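Collaborator request log, item 7. Partner lab (contact: R.S.) asked for a structural prediction of 3-oxoacyl-ACP reductase to inform their binding assays.
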Amino acid sequence: MTDRYASFVQTGAGRALVKRLGLPDPPRLRRHTPGDPLVPGPVLLGSSAGGRIAEPAGKILTAAGVELADPVAAHDADRRFAALVYDASGITDSAGLRQLYDFFHPQARSLLPSGRVIVLGTPPAECGSPREATAQRALEGLTRSIGKEFGLGVTAQLVYVTREGDAGTPVSLESTLRFLLSGRSAYVSGQVVRVGTGSAVAPADWDRPLSGQVVLVTGAARGIGAALAKVLARDGAQVVALDIPAAGDELAAVANEIGGSAVQLDLTAPDAPARLAEHLASRHGRVDVVVHNAGITRDKTLGRMDADRWDSVIDVNLSSQERINDVLLERDLIPAGGRIVSVSSIAGIAGNRGQTNYATSKAGVIGLVDSLSPVLRERGISLNAVAPGFIETRLTARIPLTIREAGRRMNSMAQGGLPVDVAETIGWLSWPASGAVSGNVVRVCGQSLLGA
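Returned to partner:
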């Protein structure tokens, strides 16, 4: 689906009109291409007094070939940076928040287009005093506001890094820094990511971080699912693409394109989890990553919704995930180091008129992450979810024009996202190097104005 308005504003006449009338100005976003450098320029790394994360973060960036700017360069009004990374973990009370102003105020106009802002902090629950927890919680307001202020496709994120265990080592933080700095995170902004404990294995090649992994993608025949299959295969995975028999031709085309395999299966069938488990066991002996992407909509306001619409959406979008997880875990087909990633939706956070069934199912996915991730952590398996906002697909193309345009413009990027944006985010959560990232729900919504 083409965003004609976004294309128009890139023309000379369009830019003049946008400036004169104050219309939304969708920037060109920097997206990932294999072989790209991690960032297109130097990174300015700063730290609060007593910060504990700047040193390992600096080592990660240097090893990744990133040029760390001399702090003196920060005072050069003509110097431009690809990213600003600030370790705020040393801030222990509200007075210390002034350090944030001192770092970011002079740099508010120093970022290149599609620049990145990352603030590193301590989870409030791990803070040593109420005052420290208060100050660390305040960081969310800073990053979300920066994401709305800086413009030009700039994204801003807060990363809480645990004090416990091995998460202070570079490898545990590396995958998150690499994702958030790169073009993979083009449509992710205003998010809070928690890096905890867990096994993290750095890949031999960061351009193929899923090399050797067996990955199951449900709902893979079209849209986000097809983009997922392609991105995961590009990153080295052996992809098992699954969809309903009615989508068999499209599914086969996707599987053939990426050199993967296709499984035609209705996930609502009573024997579907067992049949899927038997297929994975016989063909691969395991599944390293399970991506629950399959989903449907059956929209009606609640007062006019028949029971079949309610039941089918809950069954496909939520209950089928629970049933598949139960069987795969019971049969030990997901090994230690495995990953489960579920697709939720911004509707599950903010709700949506005419989608009570859909919003309920997608909020349930978030509940699944909250309740099951601590249990799976004991088995060395991570569980996360992504919550897409307005993504340009055939489904959103059917939305009435005025509602569609509102969905596109009501975010910090003033445009809809692409299926690849969701795929890249799921790819990061699937990496073996992302083992310390679990229990997160990451919105892929361009920092939508809807919801939290």
